[in-house]
Amino acid sequence: MAVSLIALGGCQYMPHAYEPQSPQIPEARTLPIPGAILTFVSEGSGRPIVFVHGNIADLRIWSDQRGPALKGYQEVSYSRRYHYPNAWAGDGRDYTEANHEQDLVHVIHGLHLGRVDLVGHGSGAQLAVEVALSHPELVRTLVLVEPAMATAAIGRPGFEALTTKRAELAEQMAAAVKKTDDEKAAKLLFNWADGSPGAYDALAAPLRGEILDNARVLAFFLATPPPGVLCAELGRLTVPTLVVTGEHSNPFFAAVADAVTACVTGAVRETIPTTGHVVQRDNADAFNAALVGFLAAH
């Protein structure tokens, strides 16, 4: 009953009004939206940027994009439903692409942000695209980091072999999830995405902990994967778009990024040196410089 009453409160946010609270994100607040209560952080003032994380992450993945690096902007990052530290208010059947898309729209409206620069990583990049297509009035620019929209690259030379490997990965992850070995599933995914079989074990403890905090969400993602986004749909985008990949991440992402760049009129392509899949953490200075430079030009 309490959750229903809070959700009816519309666009009011509250400091840590909902369990579980996170000692790792003391500045976080919560925003009630239809069907969920989402944790977010807002810092700075000026032109608003909204950061959208991927499958085994939460708002902390953008910690290096906060503060002086983006002075002159309001930086908003949030954790998607079921992601840390949000409470599990259901059984995961509401963990759908349609709900994630509407959640992002509610974050923009609920925080009264107006038109925003949307920055999405991994599966978060597809969410950013979907909102730009369905609500173009809300989006000023798009920054797609390591986008995973494989259907945009169908038919490109050499891509079938990459998608075959990805399909094999999905089967291995599903087998691990069936055995309730969420960490193994997350490790498989991260090693594949980062392009190195030892990438997960080599992570610093804080980032590995963030992945573990979100590993159990993979069961929902595997059960209801997002629909594909075709090149023709990307061609409908009308906002300035930057597509970013890491120098050393899985070649799958570079292939997808190249395809997305070709599909979106006027899109800009950038590769950040000395980075794997988590581009924004692996070389934050270079990523932030590319981001600020792109936003300043638009």
Question: Keywords for this structure?
Answer:
disordered N terminus, alpha/beta, eight-stranded mixed sheet, Rossmann fold, 11 helices, 39% helix, 298 residues
Walkthrough of the structure:
This protein is α/β, with parallel strands linked by helices and 298 residues long. It has one domain: Alpha/Beta hydrolase fold, catalytic domain (Rossmann fold, 3-Layer(aba) Sandwich), CATH 3.40.50. Helices cover 39% and strands 16% of the residues. Strand 1 and strand 2 form a beta hairpin. Helix 2 packs across helix 3 and helix 4 runs antiparallel to helix 5. The longest helix is centred in the middle third of the chain and has 20 residues. The protein is globular, with a radius of gyration of 18 Å.
Task: Look at the structure and give the CATH class.
Answer: Alpha Beta
Strand arrangement, largest sheet? 1-2-4-3-5-6-7-8
**Which class best fits the helix and strand makeup?**
alpha/beta
* Beta fraction: 15-25%
Q: What does the radius of gyration come to?
A: 18 Å
**Beginning-to-end CA distance, first to last residue:** 45 Å
The gross shape turns out to be globular
CATH H-level superfamily: Alpha/Beta hydrolase fold, catalytic domain
Poorly predicted parts: 1-20
Approximate helicity band: 25-40%
How many strands, which pairing sense, and closed or not: the largest β-sheet? Answer: 8 strands, mixed
Sketch the topology as an H/E string, one letter per element.
HEEEEHEHEHHHHHEHEHH
Number of strands: 8
In the CATH hierarchy, what is the architecture at level 2? Answer: 3-Layer(aba) Sandwich
Mean pLDDT: 91
How many domains is the backbone divided into?
Answer: 1
CATH fold-level topology: Rossmann fold
Number of helical segments with 4 or more residues? 11
